[in-house]
Automatic annotation (TrEMBL):
<feature type="transmembrane region" description="Helical">
    <location>
        <begin position="6"/>
        <end position="24"/>
    </location>
</feature>
<keyword id="KW-0812">Transmembrane</keyword>
<feature type="transmembrane region" description="Helical">
    <location>
        <begin position="31"/>
        <end position="49"/>
    </location>
</feature>
<feature type="transmembrane region" description="Helical">
    <location>
        <begin position="348"/>
        <end position="373"/>
    </location>
</feature>
<feature type="transmembrane region" description="Helical">
    <location>
        <begin position="268"/>
        <end position="288"/>
    </location>
</feature>
<feature type="transmembrane region" description="Helical">
    <location>
        <begin position="188"/>
        <end position="208"/>
    </location>
</feature>
<keyword id="KW-0472">Membrane</keyword>
<feature type="transmembrane region" description="Helical">
    <location>
        <begin position="241"/>
        <end position="262"/>
    </location>
</feature>
<feature type="transmembrane region" description="Helical">
    <location>
        <begin position="105"/>
        <end position="122"/>
    </location>
</feature>
<feature type="transmembrane region" description="Helical">
    <location>
        <begin position="61"/>
        <end position="84"/>
    </location>
</feature>
<keyword id="KW-1133">Transmembrane helix</keyword>
<feature type="transmembrane region" description="Helical">
    <location>
        <begin position="385"/>
        <end position="407"/>
    </location>
</feature>
<feature type="transmembrane region" description="Helical">
    <location>
        <begin position="413"/>
        <end position="432"/>
    </location>
</feature>
<feature type="transmembrane region" description="Helical">
    <location>
        <begin position="308"/>
        <end position="328"/>
    </location>
</feature>
<feature type="transmembrane region" description="Helical">
    <location>
        <begin position="444"/>
        <end position="461"/>
    </location>
</feature>
<protein>
    <recommendedName>
        <fullName>Transporter</fullName>
    </recommendedName>
</protein>
């Protein structure tokens, strides 16, 4: 099998190289993607006005593809805001106060709770939900604020965000770019997530324990009392407990339904989103009473603002990478050579015939590319690139698309999602009162060790 490459293919490839170089230099790549789309349009249509239209239409296409993901994040954040106001978040974690007896237990309990909540609420809301509550408990048993921050980072922004098993925003982006089903990426990511998570968190715990024993891990700031004395809009604790249990049951039912009804991807997201909207409405009525109608709207708007702020950077980048597959014909017409399977597929077929690729080279490359895409600190803006390259390499290898896609996704989000990029760890650093650069520095060694081990494992799984 061979592929005919045209100027369109070379332009696409050149812009991928430029995008990677820009990420290495820590530059924003939105403009590069816009220019890339325009040049692809010029090469395809030879028309300036049609190429200009193509830029806008590609944004619309990307937004349409990403809209369910943006909405689910927005709804979850809106619901989280209500839970914080009501004080229900405190009741959700209160049973753990009697469990945490020493710094070892504190590290693992905080991390596991952060991971579980992050799967359902995403890390940013989860930080707000548990940070201020667990920090005082942890400090009392000998785990400094830096240790709490590391645990929250690695379990939440690392394990939970990179796997994203419940909301499935990350697998959606990478799966679309790789041209495979979301379920395949999720399934392939399970062993890699376990390996990465176990290696990284145990390595971090080793270094934390060593520093605590040698008195090198110091608490740099104290959590202000105002976090402890926050006014709760639902004053009755029995009511808060009842509502907390009701919410947990509601999402547990969702998980059961997803399992038996085999709901994945968009269907699973829709079930969680719908449940979150009902929870948001119910808790708002109980919390805000006669002002509930206005507050429901206000919290939804705040959630949407958060969602579009997070994913706004993704749209122009996704718009470019979607053109590597079926979106190209929708935007610029059927101008690729006869028999073309899409730009990325064509490049993959060509690569298979021109360059010897093996599982070792492919795995290392996906990890490096994923890490590079995370340098901008968003974690999500470049993982589409990892999916595209995984597709390209797997075509050359004759398989392994899902594993390579999952590997690139894990590397990209562990680096950029909030573990070793200083400007990405600010939320956790702020809630724990530690220096973000110091936090990123302490996360660096465990994450690198984890990526090396996970990459080696992927070589055998392809």
């Amino acid at each position: 099998m061979s592929a005919t490459l045209t100027s369109i293919h070379y332009i696409y490839l050149i812009f991928i190289v430029i995008i990677i170089f820009a990420m290495i230099k820590k530059k924003d790549i939105s403009l590069i993607c816009i220019i890339g789309i325009f040049f692809l349009g010029i090469a395809s249509t030879g028309s300036i006005y049609r190429s200009t239209m193509g830029v806008f239409n590609s944004f619309v296409y990307a937004a349409k593809e990403l809209m369910p993901t943006i909405f689910i994040i927005s709804v979850i954040v809106a619901m989280s805001n209500v839970l914080i106001d009501a004080g229900i978040n405190e009741e959700i974690v209160s049973p753990f106060k009697g469990v945490i007896k020493n710094y070892s237990i504190a590290y693992w309990v905080i991390g596991i709770v952060m991971m579980i909540l992050s799967w359902f609420f995403w890390p940013s809301p989860a930080v707000a939900l548990i940070g201020a509550l667990f920090l005082p408990i942890a400090k009392k048993v000998g785990l400094p604020a830096m240790g709490v921050a590391i645990s929250m980072n690695l379990f939440g922004h690392g394990i939970a965000l990179s796997s994203d098993f419940v909301i499935q925003a990350a697998p959606k982006l990478t799966a679309d770019a790789a041209g495979i089903a979301v379920s395949k990426v999720v399934h392939a990511s399970i062993p890699l997530t376990i390996i990465m998570g176990v290696v990284t968190t145990f390595a971090a715990f080793y270094y934390i324990s060593k520093d605590i024993k040698s008195k090198k891990l110091f608490d740099k700031a104290e959590l202000e009392e105002k976090d402890e004395s926050k006014k709760l809009l639902i004053s009755s604790r029995p009511i808060r407990i009842f509502l907390a249990v009701l919410i947990l049951i509601a999402f547990l039912v969702d998980i059961i339904v997803m399992y038996f009804a085999k709901l994945q991807g968009g269907d699973a997201t829709a079930l969680i989103g719908g449940t979150a909207l009902f929870v948001l409405s119910l808790i708002s009525i109980v919390t805000y009473k006669n002002k509930s109608l206005e507050q429901i709207t206000n919290n939804i708007v705040k959630g949407l603002q958060f969602g579009f702020k997070i994913f706004g950077v993704v749209i122009p980048i996704a718009a470019f990478f979607y053109l590597g597959d079926s979106a190209f014909n929708d935007i610029f017409g059927n101008v690729l050579p006869h028999g073309s399977q899409g730009i990325v597929n064509d490049l993959g077929i060509y690569l298979a015939n021109a360059v010897p690729i093996n599982s070792i080279v492919a795995s290392i490359t996906l990890t490096v590319v994923g890490a590079i895409t995370g340098l901008d600190g968003s974690g999500f803006s470049g993982i589409s690139l990892a999916g595209s390259i995984a597709h390209l390499f797997s075509t050359a290898l004759g398989g392994g698309t899902a594993t390579l896609t999952a590997l690139g996704q894990i590397a990209g989000i562990w680096v950029g999602g909030g573990t070793i990029i200083p400007w990405a760890v600010i939320p956790v650093a702020a809630i724990c009162g530690v220096d973000p650069f110091e936090l990123a520095k302490r996360n660096l060694k465990p994450v690198i060790i984890g990526l090396i081990v996970t990459t080696i494992a992927a070589m055998f799984l392809i």
